[in-house]
Amino acid sequence: MTNRFTHTLSLGALVLCAPQVTFAQANMPETPTDVKAAPEDAVKTPSGLASKVLAKGKGSAHPAAADTVTVHYSGWTTDGKLFDSSVKRGEPTSFPLNGVIKGWTEGVQLMVEGEKRRFWIPADLAYGENPGGGRPGGLLVFDIELLSIKKAPKAPELSAPADAEKMPSGASAKTVAKGSGTKSPKSEDTVKVNLALWSPTGELLQSTDQEGRPAEVPLDKLRIGGLPEVLKTMVDGEKKVVWIPANVAFGPNLPPGAPAGGIVVEVELLSFKEGVPPPPVPADVAAVPADAQKTASGLASKVLSKGTGKEHPKATDKVTVHYSGWTLDGKLFDSSVTRGEPSSFGLNQVIAGWTEGVQLMVKGEKRRFWIPAGLAYGENPGGGRPGGMLVFDIELFEIQK
Q1: Is 317 known to be catalytic?
Q2: Same domain for 323 and 268?
């Protein structure tokens, strides 16, 4: 222990006397002498990619385009300017090989683990001649060291077999590994899952295994149509393959890049965390009842439970509330209750119907509001916001001046 402490003091004294060198400076890769152009002994492929082995590897397997690789790399423009380097940062990087520039996707497949290779990548296999956005243009030179290869998951059957269960949505599912759990998640629960998504041709689109961690998401926020329906039939540890038509997975308007033939999903339910059940839809959600109070603006409201306070908030006050909001067809579009956390905000920073309505309340009161479109988001607001008249249940907890 004494020796270690003495050594630390001695090292500290040396550092104080020596010029300060940053980690990045100490690990600054040298500019290659052949950075301007590929040398004659470089190997070229039909695409125009040129490369040269700098250090042989110890492995024998080559990565496939769908595999995830871990590498150290440095990149230069032909004038010798270093524009990016994991070596300089002191941390290798990992990525699916089909998710990078074409020159990398092609080139790294030529390598084996432990190999270091220099690439001269033409503009059309990199970012183009004048890419903009701060990206380098023209021919680029990379030194890449392949540290490890993680194989991509293998695609399951790409068409639903005859014994797959047909779901009400139009998706089909088949259990490939039984689970050990006894309960299934509900819409309000948060699921922890391993996922792999393929196109109908077997192209791997996304994989939590490649990303290095499971996905954890509220089931009602999972934006792959048909999949929440299947997950609600599963138990912990169960694995299923799901075949989802495009109109079910993505809706009637196919997003850019989405496969027109739908997707094949392998999903494993690792666990789930129970959420708060959604509040029941009000019986009078479709229209303002006769016993509701109305203001001159057209705002209607009804006290559901009386409060304990006497003071009303002003528009300039900050309030803390629990709330749930529905459209007139009974669709719940937002709720602090299901999130399990009250919301706080300046009362003059929300829609006009809230600013006016909450001022009618006292602390501890719960009230239902029917807010006309003109006091909410309008008839057709866009951006995912609900249009038309909206119904809110609001419970006022705190008032801050």
Answers
A1: no
A2: no
Tens digits of residue pLDDT in 201-234: 998 998 998 888 999 999 988 989 999 999 999 9
Mark whether 329 is an active-site residue: no
| 377 is known as an active-site residue | yes
* Residue 288 belongs to some domain of the structure: no
Q: Report the CATH number that the domain containing residue 301 is assigned in CATH.
A: 3.10.50.40
Full-model pTM: 0.62
SS3 string, the chain, reads CHHHHHHHHHHHHHHHHCCCCCHHHHCCCCCCCCCCCCCCCCEECCCCCEEEEEECCCCCCCCCCCCEEEEEEEEEECCCCEEEEHHHHCCCEEEEHHHCCHHHHHHHCCCCCCCEEEEEECHHHCCCCCCCCCCCCCCEEEEEEEEEEECCCCCCCCCCCCCCEECCCCCEEEEEECCCCCCCCCCCCEEEEEEEEECCCCCEEEEHHHHCCCEEEEHHHCCCCCHHHHHCCCCCCCEEEEEECHHHHHCCCCCCCCCCCCEEEEEEEEEEECCCCCCCCCCCCCCCCCCCEECCCCCEEEEEECCCCCCCCCCCCEEEEEEEEEECCCCEEEEHHHHCCCEEEEHHHCCHHHHHHHCCCCCCCEEEEEECHHHCCCCCCCCCCCCCCEEEEEEEEEEEC
Determine whether 351 is an active site residue. yes
Of these residues, 73, 323, 369, 394, which one is catalytic?
A: 323
Q: What is the pLDDT of residues 40-99, one digit of tens each?
A: 999 999 999 999 999 999 989 999 998 999 999 999 999 999 999 999 999 999 999 988
- Out of 121, 377, 394, 399, the active site residue is 377
